[in-house]
Amino acid sequence: MMDVEYQSGGAGESDKKEDEKDGRIVKLHPLAIMTICDHYTRVSSGGSTLPRDSIVVGILFGTRDSLACADSIVDAVEIEFETRKGVTPTIVASSIKMKIELHAEVFPLQEAVGWYRVGDAVEASDLTVQSQIVAHVADPLFVLVRTEPEDGAKEVPVSLYEAVGGAFVAMDFELEASEPERIAIEHVAKARRPANAAGTDDGGGALKEQLQSVASSIDSMRVRVDALVDYLRKVEAKEVQPDQKLLRQAVALVKILPAIPSAKGGTVLSEEFRREFDDTLTISYLSTIAKTAVSLRTYSEKSKLTEASSGTNLTSTRIRRGLH
After folding, report:
1. Domain containing 152: what range?
2. Where residue 17 falls among pLDDT bands split at 50, 70, 90?
3. I need a surface site. Which of 7, 21, 175, 179 has the fewest CB within 10 A?
4. In a domain, 37, yes or no
């Protein structure tokens, strides 16, 4: 992890703030990383109205639990800024305010928790941007996504910082993803892995591999449950001697299961599974719609640029013809 220090106030104040934030847990969700990468790809590939070499910055959204000292970074949204050559970019206040308000209407349980930039290292200008973000986000976190990870690196090229006493201090974070989020990201990214030694893909991918692992675990659990049920039946028929310790463990296991009948005739477990399944399908569907909307917007912007360029060339041709 790189060391980042900038001249600031007294060291005692920095140490005090750092001690106060010891034990702070930050959980980073893959949806946020994927959104940041998509933002950078659109800009660097010319799919945005911004220049290819433009900086990539945005706001981070998530949740904060002050009691547990835990922050979660769930999503990311790009923001507008003004920049001039050799001058630190200036965040458009109206843009960031509007993005925060719109996000709060759709996701009332989330709030702005920080900002991100895509680059290879922390720069002095990041502190200036941090001071602008503070006006809209309390105690913002800073996520830096590197475009060129080191060779052989096994960790995600993402670094997390917090500002302490006028300097950026590196923080540890954990990657966390819910099951619906993982499946939705898999569906949108269409991630695929080689299925055999020849390096070919049979159309499965990471999702298929994960589902096979879950199915194998369920089959193994079913074998154990069948063995336990068979033992209990034999105990009831007095074919074997009862093991009191094993019977107590079986009773404790049964009490854990949420088998309370519901009003719909099913069980709490089946209803929870159905609800989780519906949430997964909904998130996957919304992710596909969002990706389609972004593609349409990109196509529209490119079409406008093409029409504007064609109109300029046509006008220039007419002027040259008139001069001749």
Report:
1. 11-177
2. very low
3. 7
4. yes
